[in-house]
Write a structure and sequence with these properties.
Blueprint (H helix, E strand, L loop, with lengths): L15 H10 L9 E3 L7 E2 L5 E10 L11 H17 L4 E11 L5 H18 L2 E9 L5 E10 L15 E5 L4 H18 L11 H8 L5 H9 L6 E4 L4 H12 L1 E6 L7 H10 L3 H7 L6 E5 L4 H4 L5 E9 L4 E4 L5 E3 L12
Parallel strand pairs: 4-5, 9-12
Antiparallel strand pairs: 1-2, 3-6, 4-6, 7-10, 7-11, 8-10, 9-11, 12-13
Helix pairs in contact: 2-3, 4-5
Bound molecules: adenosine-5'-diphosphate and magnesium ion.
Adenosine-5'-diphosphate binds next to helix 1, strand 4 and strand 5.
Length: 349
C-alpha cells in the first residue's frame, strides 16, 4: 500500500514534468548496440541493420489490471515491462528496447513513482533491454502505465500464430495456473485484512504462486533454449489470457484443430494443493487462469527428439485437421470441446 509507510512525501508538482523525467531516467544505462539515441530528444533513434524489428505494446490500468492494495509499485513496474517482453519472445525475437508512458494522479508522491521505476529498471537490467523513451502526463484518479517493447529477429526466424500444421506437437514451457491462484490467495487475504488489519497473513504455503502473480518472468531463456536445440517452432503465442484461449488463437490463425491431454498439463505441487484448499478443479485453473507468461508453441514431430528430455518443455497434445476441432482429452479418455473463458477486459463484470 502506498499510504501506509510513514515515509517522505515529495509532491510531483515540486519537480515538474521535465524534472520528473530527468530524475526517473538518469540511472538507466544503455546496453544495446542498436540504441543510437536514448531519452532526451524528441524521439529515440535505433538501428537494426539486417534484422527484422518487432514492436508490441500493452496498457496496465489501475483497478482493471492491478490493485495497489497488494501489488507493490516496484513489482508493478517490473510486471509492466515483463508482459511486453513476453510478447516479443513469443515472436521468437530478442527484446532490445522499451518505452514507458505513465499517467499519474497527485495521489502519488515522487517516492511512489521512484518505486515503480526501480521495478522497471530491475526488469531492464535482467532482460538486457534499454529504456529509450516514453511520455509523462497527469491523470485525474488512478495510475495508468503503457509500455512498448521493441525487439529484433533474424529474417525467417520470426514465429507467428499461423504456422501450426496437423501432427505438430503442442508444447508449453514451465507450468501453468499458478498466477491465477496467487491472485485468489491475495484477494482472500485482502478481505481478511479489511476485517482485521492486525492480522498478518501466513503466506508460506503460497510463495510460488504469489510470486507467479506479483513477479512474473518472461521466457527469454526458452527462446535461447530453442535456439540452442536448433528448434524453430511452427507457431507460438505467450500465455497471458489462459491456455485454452491461447490454444484457440493458434488453431484459428493456423486453421487447424488439436487434441490437448488433461493428464499432460504441467502443474506445480502448490497449484495442486491450493486448488484442493479452494475447492477448485486444477484442470479448469490450468486451462483458464491467465497471466502465467509461459510460451505455448507447436513443434514439428521431427524435432521431438530434441525437446523430449527437456524439463522446461512439456508436450501437452498435438495438432489435428481443422475440421476435427479443438478438444480436451480427459483422464477418463473423454473428448470435450475446448472453450475459452479467458480474461476479457470488455466483460461486464
Ligand atoms: P515531447 O514533448 O517531445 O513529447 P517529452 O518532454 O515528453 O518530449 O519527453 C522528453 C524525453 O523524455 C523523450 O526522450 C521522452 O521519450 C522521454 N520520456 C518522457 N516521459 C518518460 C517516461 N515516463 N519514462 C521514460 N522516458 C520518458
Ligand atoms: Mg511527451
Amino acid at each position: 500500500m502506498i499510504e501506509d509507510k510513514n515515509q517522505q512525501r515529495t509532491e510531483l508538482s515540486q519537480l515538474g514534468e521535465f524534472g520528473l523525467i530527468d530524475h526517473l531516467s538518469k540511472n538507466f544505462e544503455v546496453k544495446q548496440q542498436s540504441t543510437i539515441k536514448t531519452i532526451g530528444d524528441d524521439a529515440a533513434v535505433l538501428e537494426f541493420k539486417d534484422k527484422r524489428v518487432v514492436v508490441t505494446t500493452d496498457f496496465l490500468v489501475e483497478g482493471v489490471h492491478f490493485d495497489l492494495s497488494y501489488m507493490p509499485l516496484k513489482h508493478l513496474g517490473y510486471k509492466a515491462v515483463i508482459v511486453n517482453l513476453s510478447d516479443v519472445y513469443a515472436m521468437n525475437a530478442e527484446a532490445t528496447q522499451v518505452t514507458v508512458s505513465i499517467a499519474v494522479s497527485n495521489r502519488f508522491p515522487l517516492e511512489a513513482i521512484e518505486e515503480l521505476y526501480a521495478g522497471i529498471q530491475t526488469a531492464c537490467k535482467l532482460y538486457n533491454v534499454d529504456l529509450v523513451g516514453g511520455d509523462t502526463t497527469s491523470s485525474t484518479s488512478g495510475l495508468i502505465i503503457s509500455v512498448t517493447a521493441i525487439g529484433q529477429v533474424d529474417k525467417d526466424k520470426e514465429v507467428y500464430r499461423s504456422g501450426a500444421k496437423p501432427n505438430d506437437l503442442l508444447v508449453v514451457s514451465g507450468d501453468i495456473g499458478g498466477a491465477y491462484l496467487g491472485l485468489q490467495v491475495l484477494e482472500r487475504e485482502k478481505e481478511v485484512f479489511k476485517v482485521n488489519p492486525n492480522n498478518q497473513p501466513d503466506l508460506e504455503a503460497y510463495t510460488y504462486i504469489i510470486e507467479r502473480q506479483l513477479k512474473p518472468e518472461a521466457r527469454k531463456d526458452v527462446i535461447k533454449l530453442l535456439q540452442d536445440l536448433d528448434v524453430k517452432p511452427t507457431s507460438m503465442i505467450d500465455i497471458s489470457d489462459g491456455l485454452s484461449s491461447e490454444i484457440l488463437h493458434l488453431c484459428k490463425h493456423s486453421k487447424v484443430g488439436c487434441d490437448l491431454y488433461e493428464n499432460k498439463l504441467p502443474l506445480d505441487p502448490q497449484v495442486i494443493s491450493t486448488c484442493e484448499e479452494f475447492n477448485l478443479d486444477s484442470t479448469t485453473i490450468a486451462l483458464n487462469g491467465g497471466e502465467d507468461y509461459e510460451l505455448l508453441m507447436t513443434v514439428s514431430q521431427e524435432d521431438f527428439p530434441k525437446i523430449k528430455a527437456n524439463p522446461n518443455l512439456t508436450v501437452i497434445g498435438y495438432i489435428t485437421e481443422e475440421n476435427a476441432g479443438a478438444h480436451l482429452v480427459t483422464r477418463a479418455d473423454q473428448k470435450i470441446k475446448l472453450t475459452a473463458q479467458g480474461w476479457n477486459s470488455f466483460d461486464k463484470d
